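Worked example (supplementary).
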Amino acid sequence: MFHFSVLQKDKSSKARAGRLATPHGDILTPHFNPVGTQATVKTLSSQDLATIGAQIVLSNTYHLFLRPGVDTIEKLGGLAKFQGWNGPVSTSSIRGGPTMTDSGGFQVFSLGVAQKKVTLKDSQGRKMSKFSKSVFSDPIEKSILLPAVTKTTEEKQLNKLRAAKISEDGVWFYSHIDGSKHWFDADVSIQAQEKLGADLIVAFDDHESPLWDYQTTRVSLERTNRWALASLAAQKRQDQLMYGVVHGGYYEDLRHESAKFTDKYFPAVSIGGSYTSKQVLRNVLDWCVPYFQDDKPRHLLGIGEVEDLFEGVARGIDFFDCVAPTRRGRHGNLYISPGNGGRKENNFTIQITNAKYALDQDPIDPGCECLTCQHYTRAYLRHLFVADELLAQRLGSYHNVYFIVNLVKRIRESILQESFQQLKAEWLGRLRAS
RNA sequence: GCUGGGUUGGCAGAGUAGCAAUCGCAUCUGGCUGUAGACCAGACGUCCGAAAGGGCUCCGGGGGUGCAAUUCCCUCACCCAGCA
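After joint prediction of all chains, the assembly is encoded as:
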């Protein structure tokens, strides 16, 4: 029912182009999965996604469990039908296109330990977001971690939200919608994912904080592994491919152990975690991938900045998902290619709200063939963002998702044409050691 | 013309006889990686400085009282309301 095959390997890296056969059509890899947490990629329709070339969309079990409820979606024919997703244009099917659900494991972290009040200062001394995953400092540089000041009314209100509480068997979540209390464990997550009915599902995992020491991380990994086996045991449907999740933070031996474990028990593998630097991410990939068998699809959870896509593919990753294109798109941070000023240093983006674009009549990324770039100027986009018009978010998201999905498509084609190294060098520069 | 109320950053609008400028809006900049974020953070009189810092200003104009006035008093200008 599911079959992954490698079609072409790059000669000087672990990059590979492949195909994953699913009950609702084949997915060509490497591929970037747009994130549609609540059964919608914010501001984009399923038809937009098909036009863009997305082959699969990812939703979140936790969010849909809370609202509208997994029973509701089951009654309405499952996730794909519910959101009108028929898959990419080339494989359009009235039965619905390929879908994926995340287990809610990430929310154990993002609604749990990540809720601790942590404030960071960046290199210029500016305070950074207190709530983002990226708020966590590199454990090696703990000096930049500051105690949070919790004085403002806003923060007092935020304090009312209780952090999720982890036990050995599962997690008590406090709904971010209404504060109600919900129990989640491997059984609940897998049953919910079976009701949602996505083709690809993820084992329920515990997510370590990058701030944790070795022993605490090990305890978390052991919990992840117990939940992994429980997830497999809970699975009743045979028409869903379950990914196991590798954890172990930035500790090499834990990653080795976890990768070995995950590959042993699961038909598909994914790598989870939060990374305090791109070097840590590259290390983790190098530690994990050698343990994965060739014929299992590999998903790098939550990752997807431009640089990471190249480095991930070069290290043998097949699937990515990331909120960056949509979040940046809504915030006016729009992707540009190297020929138009895109560099690692600016994350291959421009901030369209900057005053210097007020009279700029170029498209966001000259040469981009997306709907936004075909019809609208930077000056117009800037106006829409500054005026807080809804179309700004849609056009920004459309461009960003198009840009990333099609960049990964180009990466795939370059592997097939044996030109991956040239493409990577064109984007990241030749000096980068891979 | 009379009476009353007012004049504080780009805008709006608090405040006070003792280091002026709370909270907004606008503007500018930075951040965003399995979505608690159409969000968050910083700057926003001027000058020097990469920064840490430091210098000089400033509550409509003028005058008065006070150790000290943006604040109290007088006066002028302008705005608003009511009455002529």
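Two points are worth noting when inspecting this output. The mean pLDDT of chain A is 89. The two ends of chain A are 35 Å apart (CA to CA).
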